[in-house]
Amino acid sequence: MLLPTNSYTEIIGTRVRSLRLGKGISRRKLSEISEVSERYIALLESGKGNPTLQILSSIAPHLEVTIGDLVDERPDASEEYMDFCKMLRNANSATLKYLKQQLNIKNIESDTKNHIAFIGLRGAGKSTIGQKLAFRLKIPFIELGQRIEQIAGMDTNEIFSLRGQSNYHRMEKEALESCLKSSSRSIIAVGGSLVLRPDSYNLLLSKCETIWLKASPEEHMERVIRQGDNRPMSSSVNAMTDLKNILESRIGLYEQADHTINTSETTVDESVKFISIKQNVVPH
User: Fold this and answer.
1) How many domains is the chain partitioned into structurally?
2) Is the pTM of this model over 0.70?
3) Which of 38, 144, 249, 271 gives 31 a disulfide partner, CB atoms 3.0 to 4.6 angstroms apart?
4) Is the residue at 126 inside a domain?
């Protein structure tokens, strides 16, 4: 980005003054050793001078910097920044390569997603696999639905009945934000429909390593009924068709997850082992 001339000269002037004062050199002394007039140095430091390369080349050595340091466009070039630039200029190729690798690692670490989140329809195994994985990794397991109920002080059915769907979704996001505020790692199992709320889902994708626990519609239905919940079959004669349609409509959203595990084809222990390896934890 090109800076306006007056802004650029102000940056240079401020930098010259800061470096001069940092070294305890008076304006008069800098004038004597650089053979640049004291009046011109005053104009330069006030941002009103228009320095030539010759002027800067006369001043820079006495401030123990290069011309490049003086004309750097970065307005907030601190002493640490200048020292680092000097170190880079004096480094050999091997050192530069090492530093580049270390900086890349730090950038990756800063972007690392600190939590693990399971997404998918009911009956995918989010709770079962999540609890076993949490035990393996020695980190907390959070059922987002339970966290919502804690915030509301009532169960999910009551929330929908008394406060409505929009309030439930608002509390869902608040509960998720509360979970993600913690710097400690955790495993979070979220409701199957959370992916339909862009704000909540984008937050989840940005802050969590997301895992879609995938299963066939038949497997979803069988597991839910096996847990003692007969509502899917009793609420509609077309329950299986409805379930297939719901799954089909959400596939594109679920596929945005970082990983996918087909729990129709793997056991709970196999799923936990797979994720543990991804987390650099040796299975046992």
Assistant:
1) 3
2) no
3) 38
4) yes
| 260, β-bridge pairs | 212
What is the distance, to the nearest Å, from the Cα of residue 12 to the centroid of all Cα atoms in its chain? 35
**What type of residue is 116?**
I
Q: Say how many C-beta atoms besides its own lie within 10 A of residue 82's C-beta.
A: 22
Taking only the tens place, the pLDDT of each residue in 166-207 is 899 999 999 999 999 877 889 999 999 999 999 999 999 999
Nearest of 204, 223, 239 to residue 121 by alpha carbon = 223
Q: Do residue 97 and residue 128 come from a single domain?
A: no
Confidence grade of residue 2 (pLDDT, cut at 50, 70, 90): very low
DSSP 209: E
Compute the residue count for the chain: 284
51 belongs to a structural domain: yes
Alpha carbon 275 to its chain's center: 20
Using the structure block, give the residue that is written with the tokens 């919502």.
Answer: 148
Q: Which amino acid is at 127?
A: S
The neighbouring-strand residues paired with 212 are 119, 260
